[in-house]
């Protein structure tokens, strides 16, 4: 047989390859049969559950149920209502109606979920009120016992804390009362050590600051008072302008350094004084004074650099008798039958006047003395450059109690009528000079500290007393009730022995103004 041989063809010699469609069709049929079998099997497994749930689910979701499905019972309808409402009360209502219902377990699960959410909220708040709010809604809830336990614990802790706070408050108050009673820096510091943030801590710190300031104030005052000078008191005022002792410091300064022109007394029985200003003047008799004596010249400029206080009036019997009564003066002077009281003391020697000023100094703590001649004349002139007060013999009558027309002495001032007629007048009866001083001339002559000198050449020009010459004799100034105009001049000087006592000589005092 030849190799080129082919079987006979049905297409009469036309050669064609067939497509495999038949096989594909067979495969599709087989797959369809398998799928149909699977669907049937699945439907057999779930059909019963679907029949139970599908109508309920569809109804709960608002879908129209299958009209061919069997009708629902009361239990199922109640559960559908609970699902539709989907609230705690809805599930509670279902259980109340169907405690053994088909969906009781599911309803309880939903209720428990609400319970757990309420408990979680209570735990997050973690307060008595939070747990009480839980119990108000879930008295028999899953966590009711735990809520009650926590409430009990928290109340116990709260009560313990309150009791502890009360004890601490009582102790703090007791410690504060103790500190306040002691009222010292140390007591308040002790309180603060125990209660640094206590309710009285701010007050304690303020009181410490006040006490420390007061201590510094008191120390400064004591230092000033111990020094006892006007400058020391002024330093206190500068350092503590609002200090506790400001009034005392001002009063002390006024005592030590009274203002010019002020009239004051250092004690009840002390003479009234007035403060004279510092200043300069020409003292002694000028060459133009025809009545001048050699011991009154030459006139010289005198500068009193410091102010001083001088008795407004001559020392009276009442004032001097107080010294006698106190034992500061040894003898009670005679009043010549003219009366005591406010009349100028007479019949006193230089030593008697010195004893009186020493007693005043001891009684008051200030430095009293007799005036120097320069102080006396400076005060008597009060800035005037006339021969005597008033500038004329007629005007002199208003200022000086001297020998007047009623007396028989040749040197009497015929221009004056003497109300005393040959005796002293109560001090201050006549007019004051420009510095407020009375009886600087007339009434009684006045002891000074200066010794007897033949003239004023080389006499001190600073206001201090002259210790040259014969100090067994002292200068008296101002003339007396027995003096005529020549002896009532500002510059007139008369010398007496230190032990002389007579009815026409007395004294007045000066007091140093301390710095």
UniProtKB/TrEMBL annotation:
Domain of life assignment: Bacteria
Assigned keywords, A-Z: Membrane, Transmembrane, Transmembrane helix
Domain Sulfatase-modifying factor enzyme-like per the UniProt entry, residue ranges: 271-511
Residue ranges of the TM segments: 24-43
Name of protein: Sulfatase-modifying factor enzyme-like domain-containing protein
Lineage of the organism: Bacteria, Pseudomonadati, Pseudomonadota, Alphaproteobacteria, Maricaulales
């Amino acid at each position: 047989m030849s190799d080129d041989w082919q079987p006979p063809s049905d297409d009469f010699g036309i050669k064609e390859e067939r497509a495999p469609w038949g096989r594909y069709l067979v495969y599709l049929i087989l797959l369809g049969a398998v799928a149909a079998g699977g669907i049937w099997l699945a439907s057999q497994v779930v059909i019963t559950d679907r029949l139970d749930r599908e109508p309920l689910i569809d109804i709960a979701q608002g879908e129209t149920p299958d009209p061919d499905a069997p009708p629902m019972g009361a239990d199922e309808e109640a559960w559908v209502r609970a699902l539709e409402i989907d609230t705690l009360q809805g599930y509670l209502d279902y259980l109340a109606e169907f405690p053994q219902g088909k969906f009781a377990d599911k309803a309880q699960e939903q209720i428990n979920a609400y319970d757990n959410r309420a408990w979680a909220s209570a735990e997050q708040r973690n307060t008595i009120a939070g747990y009480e709010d839980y119990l108000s809604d879930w008295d028999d809830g899953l966590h009711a016992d735990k809520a009650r336990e926590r409430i009990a614990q928290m109340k116990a802790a709260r009560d313990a804390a309150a009791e502890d706070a009360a004890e601490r408050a009582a102790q703090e108050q007791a410690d504060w009362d103790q500190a306040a009673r002691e009222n010292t820096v140390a007591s308040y510091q002790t309180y603060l050590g125990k209660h640094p943030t206590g309710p009285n801590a701010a007050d304690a710190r303020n009181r410490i600051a006040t006490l420390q300031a007061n201590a510094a104030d008191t120390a400064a005052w004591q230092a000033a008072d111990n020094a006892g000078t006007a400058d020391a008191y002024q330093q206190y005022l500068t350092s503590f302008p609002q200090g506790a002792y400001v009034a005392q410091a001002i009063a002390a300064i006024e005592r030590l350094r009274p203002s010019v022109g002020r009239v004051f007394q250092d004690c009840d029985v002390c003479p009234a004084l007035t403060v004279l200003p510092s200043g300069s003047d020409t003292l002694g008799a000028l060459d133009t004074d025809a009545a001048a004596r050699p011991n009154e010249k030459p006139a010289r400029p005198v500068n009193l650099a410091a102010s001083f206080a001088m008795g407004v009036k001559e020392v009276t019997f009442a004032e001097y008798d107080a010294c006698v009564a106190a034992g500061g003066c040894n003898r009670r002077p005679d009043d010549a039958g003219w009366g005591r009281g406010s009349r100028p003391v007479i019949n006193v020697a230089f030593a008697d006047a010195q004893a009186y000023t020493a007693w005043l100094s001891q009684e008051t703590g200030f430095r009293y003395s007799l005036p120097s001649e320069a102080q006396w004349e400076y005060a008597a002139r009060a800035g005037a450059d006339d021969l005597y007060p008033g500038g004329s013999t007629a005007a002199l009558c208003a200022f000086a109690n001297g020998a007047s027309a009623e007396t028989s002495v040749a040197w009497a001032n015929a221009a004056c009528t003497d109300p005393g007629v040959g005796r002293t007048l109560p001090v201050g009866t006549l007019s004051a000079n420009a510095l407020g001083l009375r009886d600087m001339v007339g009434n009684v002559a006045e002891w000074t500290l200066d010794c007897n000198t033949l003239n004023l050449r080389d006499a001190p020009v600073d206001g201090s007393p002259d210790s040259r010459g014969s100090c067994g004799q002292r200068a008296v100034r101002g003339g007396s009730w027995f003096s005529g105009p020549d002896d009532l001049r500002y510059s007139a000087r008369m010398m007496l022995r230190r032990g002389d006592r007579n009815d026409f000589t007395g004294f007045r005092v000066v007091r140093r103004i301390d710095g």
